[in-house]
Each structure stands twice: as C-alpha cells, then as structure tokens.
Amino acid sequence: MIAYLGRRVIQSLLILLGVSLITFALLYLLPADPVRQIAGRSATPQTVENIRQQLGLDQPFVVQYWHYLTRLVSGDLGRSYIQRSEVTELIVSRLPASLLLMVGAILCELLIGLSMGLIAAVKRGTATDQTLMVASFVGVSAPQFVVGLLLLYVFAVRLSWFPIGGYGTWRHLVLPSLTMGILGAGWYARMMRSSMIDVLRQDYVRTARAKGLARGAIVFRHALPNAILPVIAMIGIDIGIFMGGIVVVESVFGWPGIGQLAWQAIQRVDIPIIMGVTLVSAFAIVLGNLLADIIAPFIDPRIKLR
Amino acid sequence: MRRFLATTVAASALALMLGMASARAEDTIDPNAKQGGAITITYKDDVATLDPAIGYDWQNWSMIKSLFDGLMDYEPGTTNLKPDLAESYEISPDGKTFTFKLRHGVKFHNGREMTADDVKYSLDRVTNPKTQSPGAGFFGSIKGYDDVAAGKAESLSGVTVVDPYTVKFELTRPDATFLHVMAINFSHVVPKEEVEKYGADFGKHPVGTGAFKLAEWTLGQRIVFERNADYWHKGLPHLDKITFEIGQEPIVALLRLQKGEIDVPGDGIPPAKFQEVMADPEQKARVVEGGQLHTGYVTMNTTMAPFDNVKVRQAVNMAINKARVIQIINGRAVPANQPLPPSMPGYDKEYKGYPYDVAKAKALLAEAGHPDGFDTQLFAMNTDPNPRIAQAIQQDLAAIGIKASIQSLAQANVIAAGGDKAGAPMIWSGGMAWIADFPDPSNFYGPILGCAGAVPGGWNWSWYCNKDLDAKAAEADSVVDPAKAVERDKMWSAIYDKIMEDAPWAPVFNEQRFTMKSARMGGADNLYVDPVHIPINYDNVYVKDVQ
Fold first, then answer.
1. How far apart are the first and last CA of chain B?
2. In chain A, where are the structural domains located?
3. Which of A280, B313, B375, B488 is the most buried (most CB within 10 A)?
4. In this structure, are residues B203 and B50 in contact, taking their beta carbons and an 8 Å threshold?
5. Interface residue A169 vs chain B (CB under 8 A)
6. What CATH number does domain A88-299 carry, 3.10.180.10, 3.30.110.30, 1.10.3720.10, 1.20.810.10?
7. Are the Cβ atoms of A84 and B415 closer than 8 angstroms?
8. CA separation for the pair A176, A165 (Å, rounded)
C-alpha cells in the first residue's frame, strides 16, 4: 500500500511537471509579445527592452522555465501581466467559490443522475426508461452555455425564484450548480442504470425476491448500496470535466471562481494567470484521480492495489 | 523671462479662458443634481488595476479619474481642457516651459495635503522603467526623460518644484499637446508614502485626491467607491456610493437592468440584443448615444506589393461599401472618410473622401497593372462582429477582382502580424482600432501613421512613413499658443488630407457609443457618453430618487 502510494505520488508529480512544461512551451511559442502588451502602444523601443529585461523575458526558454519552476517550488506563481497582482493571491481569493460550486454541482448530479438511473433501471424497457435515457442524452450533449442562459431566463428572469447571477447566498448557488450538474447527471444516469441492471440480475437479488421481499426493500436495501458504489468512485475522475465546465458556467453566472479568472486571462493573453490556473486545475485533476484510485478498493474489495 | 503668455492678445485670450474655467468649475455642477444615493454598475471583466500609472483600458480609465486628479482635466461631457489640481498655468513664449500654480488645501484620501513635491514624485514614478507604465512614452518631451527612461537617472531634470504650490516643467521641444498630457491618467498625482507602503500592490490600494475613495475591493466580485467628503471641488461628487459588480455577462447585466436591479450595464448593450432594445420605446428612452474618438479602418501594407502602388490603395478605398458594413453592426456607427473621427478637433468637414465607386476602382486597378485583380490576405480579430465585417469587405474587394483570404486570429496575434513588416498585407482594425488617448489631432498620427510607429512591433500597420509629413506634424505640435489652436487644427487637417491622398488606410466607420441607464439616473446625456471620462463621468452623474 505504502509503496503503491509512493509510486502514485511520484507519477502525479511527473504528470504535473509535464503539464507545466507543455503549457509553458505553448505559451512561449504564442505569436504574441507579452512585453508589448504591458508596455502599451505609446512605448518607446527602449521602454519595451527595459521591461523585457526586468521580467527576464530576454532569457532563453530553458532559463525562463527553470526560473518559473524554482519560484513555483516556493509557491510563487509570479505576477499577472495585466492586473499586476500576485497570481497566487488571485487564485486563492477565487478558489473557495469554485470549490463551493463543485460541491453544489456534485450534489446536483448525484441527486438527479442517480435517481434517474435508478428509476430507469427499475422500469427497464418501458416508456419511462426511454424518456429518461433521452433526457440524459440531452443533458450530456446540451452546451452548458445554452443550459445556463435558459435556466437563468426561466427561473431568475421569468419566475424570479433565484437571483440573476452573482455570488453570496445559497440561492445564488442553485442555478450554476444545476447547470453544471445537468451534464454530469446525464452520465451518472446512464452509469447508474447499467450498474443497477447488473445488480438486479445478481443471484442474491433473485434470492431476495424468491424470499418474497417487497420490491422497494429489494431495490433500496439490497440492490442500491451495491449499484451505487462503483458510480460514486467516478466522482474523483469527474474533476477533470468540472474544470472544463467551470470556465463556461462561471462566466455565464458571474460566479467569481477560477474558471472566470482563466477565461479572462486567456482573452487578454495574461500568461502568468493562464499558467497558474492550468497548474491548479491539473493538480486538482491529478489529486482527484489519485483519491479515486485509493478509495476504490475500500468501496469494492474486488479491486486490489498493486 | 516668462510672461503670462506670448502676446497680450493671447494673454487676454487665456485670461478669458481661465476666467471661464473657474466660472465653469461652478457651472459644471448641475443645479438640478441631487445629493446622495448609491448606484450599481456591472462589468464582465475584472478591474485590472486602479494605479493611474498603469491602468490603460476603457474600464478602469474613468474609475481612476474618479479616484485621482491631474493638473488638468476636461469640462464634463466635452473635450474642452480646464485646470483641475492646477489653479492656473503659464506657458513661456517659446512654448517650452509650463508653470502650474496648484490649488491650496487639496487633500489625499489619507488626509495629507497635496503639494508640488507630489506632482514631481508622480511624474518621476511614471517615467521610471521599474514602474513599467504603458504611458511613460507620453512624457517624452520633458527634459531629462531619456535619462530616466534609460535608467541613468531617478528623477526628471525638467520638473522643478518652485515652491509647495508651484511646479515648473521644462520641455526639450515646444509641445502643443502638453496640457492634454497633464490631463491623462498617467500624470495623475499619487502620494509617495502610500505608494511605498503598498509597493507593487498600490493598484489594489489606490489613494488619490479624487472625488471618490476606494471603500472595498473583493477580488472578482465587487469594488465599492465612497464619496470623498473632503473633495476640494465643493458640491461634487453627487453620489454617496458606487458599487461595481464584476463578472457579469453583458446579456445578464441587461436582464438585471430591465428588472431594475442595476443602474448601468458598464459593457453596454450586447450586440445580439441591440435591435430588441431599440425597438422597445420604453427601453430606447433610456439609451444614450454619443460619438467617440474612434475610427475603424483597413490598413494596407505600403511596403508590400501590390499595395506599394498608391492606385491600388485608392481602388480599395473606393471598393468598400461602408453603409453595408455599418448595417452589419446594426447601424452603431457613422461612415468615415478620413483618419480623424468627427468629434475630434482638426476633423476636416469639407473633405469628401473617396466615393463608393466600383467602376472607378476597377479602372484604377487596371491602371496599376492589375486588370484581373490579385490574391491577398485580410487579417481580422476573431471576435464578433469583426469576422463578419471582414467578410463584407472581402465581398466588396471580390467585386473589383481582389481575392482576399481572411485570417481571423486572436487580438494579440493580429497585433503581432501588424507589427511585422512582412506580416500582414491588409488588416481590419476592428477590436484593436485606435481610440484617442486625449482629444487632440496629433494623437491619431505618431504611433499609427507616422514614421515612429513604422517599426517592428509598432502600431503603424500600413508601414506608411512620410518624412515630409513627420516634419509638418512636428511643426504643428510646436504651435503651443492656445490662441492659435484653430490655425494648428488646420495644419493637422492638411496633414490628414495628404495622408488620404496616399491612402495607406481605407477608413471605414466611426463607432458610436450606446450606454443604457436606469430610470432613476440623472444628469446630462453627455455625461453617459463622456468623450474623456470613458465610459461614464462618475463624478457628475446623480440619482433622482433621493431627498
């Protein structure tokens, strides 16, 4: 177990190093000069050169990357080119909002997805099953931008049940969580359905039924706990999808998380922020996968860590 | 010996101007304005910084103007200069020395009185390369600038503190734009002790002399401005509080405005909703339209064949159907026929420009040796509506035989291509177009049409360099006497007329600004489309539902 963990942590660190190198290289190759951007359009060539020197951008790629890495080790992600604030501060101030949204979204997708999958499995082959599966298909394929705006329009503008975007109370959290949750719910509904169908075919379920147990008792007491475990183990892997989703959803709802920060930085070619958010996201994804792998054997004893 | 001005005529003209300025200082207060109240304004993007030496986008531009003051400013809603932190100024006869007398009793938000030392410190700071100010270049005419820019000196030798309320500027050349330079944000006065206390984070903890002070900044969520009760300009600002809510999509902001939750959507009316808003009389009544110091144009690289032939460039000017391009942006612009926008001093009202004439354009192409046209590339920024505008231009060019393939790229990439001599034959400027830093005709020349901008990484994307015009521009800018302003504007008109003869650009349109406000907002319309306090003059607007 310890050896496995050690190996996985080293693997994860290597992945992060790889991500940092690739992102750094891509941003380095970008045909846009950050110095020109900082210096502005009325700068003299001398000002441009001064700034280039101060930022160390006149150094060769390897030196620049090495400087970035050495600072990274001490937790310094540099300063934003446009906002001139420390990237760490910008990310830290926005991280709680993104985490809150993530929790909200996970609750939404589990609640919607698992119940949809459960009902579809129990009603397998019926019109209900088909309707739910079509709905899950729509949920998976609908662009989050459109879903978000639709929810906003119906529930915030028309019905005034929730505020139109923003951050602060639980009511602000509902619509963005739902928008994020609908995508995941589609996946979970499908996984839950097949997992449940599998379980329902098992001998012990047949035995329970033969004993004359009520249908509700069979589904909820015997089948559900077994069917749900493999599905829940997927949450860790989900984080990757979340990181993509928050960029869109946070922008639509004015949610002050790191997705919104990333989107703005991409539009303004603010390289230190893009690097920082990419690394933090990559870290979250790697961590999620690691946790999912570690937790899996506890949930399903058939899985062994090697 | 300095005189109040070069001649008695000019002196009386200036005296009149200053007299008017001080009278106007009271006049600028709207007698109907009510005191108090709070408003909410939304923006999509984070506010980059509130440091006047660094902030350089249309979102923080006016915010900084409300937190800080400069020696000069403009009358609200206009492009007319007036003294601000300065009480009065003198210009030497040779136009190379400017002496400003400061107001007494002006206090920073931290309670300390602002003096001439602060003015000097602020200018030393903005020109110091360590500050990395995008506006340092504006101060190039001040004596000693080159040494500071090169890191050889810490202080501008041309700025002298005569006494606590007098500061003197010596220039290396007469500079007619210097009063404008003293009004741009980069020259705004900052207190040394606060800058040193916060260092690189001063932009997050701004302390100035302005009408408002920063009360709260929650990163990514909101910025709150509070009325500066000690503001030297009595009666201003009208509002007690302004809350800027950050991170709101323009379309969401519009919905919230319609529900009465906010007062101004800072990013304006989203293009997709524009026609809907204008079709609804109730909403349309709350839209304010105004000109802005903007021109959208197509640059043609004059160093690349076939655009090195003036006839080809003139043909392109005649081929573009500007009215149709304007339709694409729902009529939110007026056709342009010269580089300067109509609201800019020096705009030549008599000049008719090139007519839309396909037959004549074809004839010109044939004369240039391209009867069947040619293949070329048109670069454009990849955000709506620019690709659609580029397509319209592409179709217009096809009508005279020019087959232009569109290169639709991110802003930074288009800018990089334009700054490369062999990079881009044609560029549609939309999304990166020139918006004046200050309302002076010279501001549309140097970086974008003069030889100084035709360098690698520069903004003169047509690589047009006419030494003769550079000399004429320098001559016009040496006319410092305000009494000769009209004469100077004429000199600039002639320069732009000559440029249009050479046709390095095809000017397409001048964008109009459309701002929306809630029914409770008061104040003249021109405060909501202020040409300098972009986008809104926060100091002078008020709400009607208080008291």
1. 54
2. 2-73, 88-299
3. B313
4. yes
5. no
6. 1.10.3720.10
7. no
8. 8
Given pLDDT bands bounded at 50, 70 and 90, which one contains residue B107? very high
Long-range CB contacts for residues A55-62, cutoff 8 Å, separation at least 24: A61/A25, A61/A28
Supply the DSSP string of B33-100, one letter for each residue: PPP--EEEEEESSPP----TTT--SHHHHHHHHHH---SEEE-TTS--EEESSEEEEEE-TTS-EEEE
Name the minimum distance, in Å, from the CA of A120 to any CA of chain B: 36
Q: Could you tell me the pLDDT band of residue A145, with boundaries at 50, 70 and 90?
A: confident
> Contact at 8 Å (CB) between B214 and B206?
yes
Round to whole Å and give the CA distance between B199 and A22: 33
> Which structure tokens are listed for B290?
């105004």
Largest CA distance in chain B: 73
**DSSP codes, B126-140:** HHSGGG--TTGGGGT
| pLDDT 10s digits, B240-285 | 999 999 888 888 899 889 989 999 999 889 888 899 999 999 999 9
Residues 250-269 of B with CB under 8 A from A: 251-252, 255-256, 259, 261
Amino acid sitting at position B32: N
* Of B394, B405, B432, B430, residue with least CA distance to B416: B432
- B487 closest CA partner among B444, B441, B531, B448: B441
The whole-angstrom separation of Cα B491 and Cα B494 is 5
Which of the 8 DSSP states describes residue B103? P
The amino acid at B543: V
pTM of the model: 0.84
pLDDT per position as a tens digit, B125-160: 999 988 888 888 899 899 999 999 888 999 999 999
Cross-strand pairs, B514: B289
Rg (CA), chain A: 24
Amino acid occupying residue A256: P
**Chain B nearest C-alpha distance from A283 (Å):** 22
Chain B residues 456-515 with a CB less than 8 Å from chain A:
457, 459
Q: Which helix (H) or strand (E) holds B163?
A: strand B159-163
